[in-house]
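Q: Sequence in, structure out?
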Amino acid sequence: MKKGINKRKIQAEQTKKNIFAAARTLFLKYGYENVTVDSIVEAAGVSKGAFYVHFKSKDSLAALLMVDYVNEMDMDYQSFLDALDPALSISDTLLALTGKIADVIVNTIGYENIKMLYKSHLTKTIDTDAALSYDRALYKAFAAILEDGVRKGDFKKDLPVDTLAKHCILAIRGITYEWCIRYPDLDLKEQCLDHFQMLLKGIIIHEHS
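A: Exactly. Output:
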């Protein structure tokens, strides 16, 4: 009897994983608003009833996917930082991370999904706290870079590192919004790097200052 229960539990978990994977692929390919529950269950090879056993709605599934995807991206960003040349200056490290984020937004997440994310931030139809939380690993990565810059004497100490880190994220979010409303006529990576170079001019300590 116990063996049968375990088998059903394993099958149920696999069904959930299949739905999760299918939804993620479809959302990234077609955009959240263009994907239906019917298309998700068809791609997952499961029944509609099975979908609602595991998820209340498409929105609740999207919220869980958001947490999963944000965590995965943040791990990728950290791996990217860990792979950089240790001899790279703090300023260049900050610019490298900024460029990497812009590349992910444009080439991996894509315009349609970013547009959906911004809409969700405003309408609250999907829980987007995972992307907005100041406890995000990405925010902490910015803070660590800035703190390293202050510790090494490259950056000024006028503003708290946490404040500077939040402003870095606010800048990227604001430029990304501008990219959305001017798409495809604005180069997100170019604008982000230009902005951060200006930001660095305000916090960097020059040798002869």
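Residues 118 and 177 are 8 Å apart (CA to CA).
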